[in-house]
Amino acid sequence: MKPKWSLLLSAAIVAAAALAAGLLVIGPKTLAAGSAAAGPSAAPVKEAAELAATTDERPNMILILMDDFSLELLRTMPEATRMAAEGATYQNAFVIDSLCCPSRAALLTGQTPHHTKVLTNTQNDPEHPVGGWSAFQRYGNVEKQFSIGLQEAGYTTGFVGKYINAYEATIGSDGTRVPPPKVPGWDSWNALLGGAYGGWGFQSTFLDGNGAVRLRNHPRPAQNATVQRKDAAYATNVTRDYALDFINEHRDDENPYFLEIAAYGPHSRLGHHYPGLDTWFPPAFADQAPAGDPAGGNCGRVACADLTLKDLPGYGDDRWDNAPTYLDRAGRTSQAPAWRTNKVSLSDETALSQYRDRARMVQSIDRMITQVREAAGDDTYIVLTSDNGFHLGQHQLNGGKGAPYDSDTRVPLVVVGPDVVPGKRSQFVNNIDLAPTFLDIAGAPTPAYVSGSSFAETLSRPRLPGGRYAFFEHTYAKSHPGEVDLDSGSGGTIDIIPSYIAVRGSRGLLVRFDLDKSWKGTDYAYELYRYDRPWEDRNVFAEDHAKPYARDLMRRLNAYEGCAPAVCRALTR
Question: Which domain of life is it from (predicted)?
């Protein structure tokens, strides 16, 4: 059975054909038009005219985006687990860059980082920004957000939560805080600003009656406030309240809506939130472990005491056999210098404590999912995913993200909604595929600059052919002020990860690192991993680089570098 949105789009194409023939006047409630050839008979014209008078029945859509969520946490979340059982679960879902800002820019536009030119979290050079809000705005990405296409197709759009790094208020000449600029593409705009990393005490935006951006304060409750009052001011719960307000306001509208809910959890905090609570991953008070009971607290479906470091594939794996490999023009290989040279500063005790705190931290997100699903109803597509993964002792990289390995690049992707056939999917999906998927469901055209591909049809047809490869790219940049992903609390090592491009297939991962950290020079070396183990255990490039599967990966990797959107799309098939 075709999904409802597909049937509606087919009907809209008939209306579009009649319009092209000059036989139909389209009103504001007509479904998004496609393209088709209209026959000369009067019957299609009558059908199109009837459609023009009907209510827009395209589905609402909600994207729930978590921050630094790693896959081992999913089993602790009751509602997310229920979603996975009732909906489509994409087992091979990845992000194009395992770093907050480049990943979010790619998701919002459907473009690769080499197209968005958003390569890091911070601008680095104000004149020629390479990351953050400055780069996102400078290089035309604001105008390429998929939300603009949804608006043009008749959707009401809303945004709640974490947006783009360094999208912040500024200080005016009179010393007052000036709201950040208005972002086109969103009818409702409730961005939580960077203070929300701490969990409590931050500002958010809203649009006044004239559509101008205003600031709202969310003060941190006093130390002696009740747990209920503290948790009401917790960033995840403020995000939830904004989201429910939007849903309740628009669920009975004639026009469909799209809402992005971008939680700050389970990202590590910046600064201290409350005296005496020293965890780098602060859960809501209702979920925290009691003093003196490190194995207590609320870890959802799994008792906190039952979460162990064995849940983290490859934890503590010795890195002696992971050094990259040089390949010369004659096909000969030689060992390259190791780039994993950081001191292993994350102790087992700290890693386990932080793992459990991260599990406690996502329980408030899970409760939000429950309430969002109840408010939205069964006729709404709800997508649950993350901007990147997170390593916590794997690869001997301490804690953080940015690496090309499964711990960092693989993310959950669960979808529920009308006509979704429950079950697991094997197709490879990247977060740049979300934008064209949302546009596809809305019946809106996908712009030519989009590098991702829609996976909408696999929601109702799980066995349809889809992507077979995922690509990653990452740009090294020495950290500058405003960098939020140093993860110093877990011994983060984002600064040592070199630039790379990579391709991931079912059999293996091929990474080309640039060991030269200058912006102009190159020093290429390779890592190749077979997935006959559940993590990147040993670099086998020297012994396997001439084998057919490795040659296929190398051919695709070479073609991916700087690829145009159409080429990028073709390489995943």
Answer: Bacteria
Beta-sheet strands, E only, within 411-563? 414-416, 423-430, 470-474, 499-504, 508-514, 524-530
* Lowest-pLDDT range of 18-32, 394-408, 432-446, 488-502: 18-32
Which domains does the chain possess?
Answer: 4-52 (no CATH), 60-571 (3.40.720.10)
* C-alpha to C-alpha distance for 350 and 152, rounded to whole angstroms: 49
- Looking at the DSSP bridge assignments, the partners of residue 511 are 502, 527
Mean pLDDT within 238-266: 97
301 has a pLDDT exceeding 80: yes
User: How many Å apart are CA 283 and CA 193, to the nearest integer?
Assistant: 19
- What three-state secondary structure class fits 333? strand
Residue 478 pLDDT = 76
Q: d(Cα 353, Cα 359) in Å, to the nearest integer? A: 10
On the question of pLDDT at 145 being above 50, the answer is yes
| Secondary structure in 3-state letters for 252-296 | CCCCCEEEEEECCCCCCCCCCCCCCCCCCCCCCHHHCCCCCCCCC
- For residues 231 and 284, the answer to whether their CB atoms sit within 8 Å is yes
Tokens standing for residue 322: 């992971």
What are the pLDDT digits (tens) for 41-69? Answer: 333 333 433 433 346 889 999 999 999 99
Least confident of 63-72, 142-151, 429-438, 469-478: 469-478
Q: Distances in Å between the alpha carbon of 570 and those of 468, 470, 564, 566?
A: 10, 11, 10, 6
How much is the pLDDT for 556? 98
Q: How far apart are CA 457 and CA 461, in angstroms?
A: 6
Answer for the pair 8, 443: CB distance below 8 angstroms, yes or no.
yes
Q: How far apart are the first and last CA of the chain?
A: 25
- For residue 473, what are the β-bridge partners? 501
User: Is a pLDDT exceeding 70 seen at residue 368?
Assistant: yes
The one-letter amino acid code at 387 reads D
22-37 burial code (b ≥16 CB/10 A, e <16): ebbebeeebbbbbebe
Indicate the pTM of the whole model: 0.91
Nearest to 505 by CA among 538, 537, 530: 530
